Amino acid sequence: MYSFLSALAAGFLAAGVPQQTLPDAVVYGQSAVVQTLIKGGADVNARNSGGMTAMMVAAFGGYVEPVRALLAAKADPNAKDNQSRTGLMAAVTNGDVAVVQALLGGAADVSAADAGGGVAVTYAAAAGSADAIDVLQKRGAKATPRDLIRAASGCYTAAVRVLLASGLKANTSVDGNAPLLAAAGENCADTVALLLDQGADVNVKDGDGWTPLIKAASANLPDVARVLLKHGADVDVADRLDRTAWMYASMTGHEEIAALLKDAKGKK
Fold it and tell me: What is the pTM for the complete model shown?
């Protein structure tokens, strides 16, 4: 849902002449060629079979000069492809702030939603584009707890920091998931440390009663386990099956984590 890569691969190259040549030039960031083609009457709002415009291709590629040229030629900054994705969504996925700012300066809509309800900040969080998130929020975009969880699960510590600074809470929970659980399960030790420093509950549970420590023990993630233990994770917390983190580590032969947990238990 949040990647333009497959759509870009399908490509603007299927569009007809002269429209085909303009997207070709955009794909390779050929600013002078883009300018020449626009002056020659190329349709700046032409679409391929997937509904992508030259603006979207340029935005995804991080080509700011073609984006500016297309905007100056009255290309629609809010055109949508067949999945209702916009050029701004493409730009924040790429993470190039100059492109994001150019689109916003050209009246790109930060609240435009795709077919699944995702908006530009959703894409930025999923891609870990911290600077883009910051720019979007300054233009009125509102991140959600789901966005924080997306960034945490991708190990995007800088993006998580920006989202927390915007007012989202480290202890937020959505459908039984929490940022700390998401980060712990994906081996995001630095993100785990940030969330804990920002007040996340080290013993938060999901719907199955799993804590971040149980996730780390089950998946054999010793670096995450060390961070959790340093922040006071309770080694005796059991899940709905009455199993603790040490039990999971022992059952799966994760000797390093089992030893860490045994040592922590002995110090209680």
Answer: 0.86
Task: Indicate the average pLDDT of the chain.
Answer: 87
CB atoms within 10 A of CB 130: 21
Q: What is the C-alpha separation between 129 and 115, in angstroms, rounded?
A: 21
Q: Are 194 and 163 in contact (CB under 8 A)?
A: no
CA 207 to chain CA centroid, Å, is 24
Backbone dihedral region of 142: left (phi > 0), alpha (psi from -120 to 50 degrees) or beta? beta
pLDDT score of 254 more than 50: yes
Give the containing element (helix H, strand E) for 7: helix 5-10
In the chain, what percentage of residues exceed pLDDT 70?
Answer: 86
How far is CA 2 from each of CA 60, 92, 152, 245, rounded to the nearest angstrom? 12, 10, 16, 33
Domains and CATH numbers, the chain: 1-142 (1.25.40.20), 169-268 (1.25.40.20)
As a three-state string, the secondary structure of 98-151 is HHHHHHHHCCCCCCCCCCCCCCHHHHHHHHCCHHHHHHHHHCCCCCCHHHHHHH
Single-letter amino acid code for the residue at 201? D
CA distances from 237 to 153, 192, 247 (A): 23, 19, 11
